[in-house]
Write a structure and sequence with these properties.
alpha+beta
Amino acid sequence: MGNDITMSLQLLRRTLIDDLGVQNLVEGRVYTSHFIDYDSKTTPMPLIILDPIGGQSNYSTEMQRLLFHVYSYSQSSSAEAGTLYHKAYIALNGKALSRSTLRMGGYAYEMERPLTGFNKDINGWFYRGTFVLNSAG
């Protein structure tokens, strides 16, 4: 079966959900894709979105290097988005990641420090950093 992207994203998502500092802000709102309907203003924030952007895999697909963005969003303030990003950074950067219910594990690190901005479509501030997950399983 190999080491697929969906399993890697779930490993990252579950790591963030299990982190108390992250959960104190997002209460489970860690998603593995952006929402299709930007007209919907009803999504509670703050939240985190993990967005894969590329990578490499070996022939057997047992090992892969996944590049992904970590977005933190807040409708309250840029400071809240920054605080949330920092908590996600602490939970992921330089950590060996594994879960007993997943047959793979890995190591994540930040590759580029975040850029910040305001997204008019969702009327909220964001931080977006680039991470790498090297995984096997």
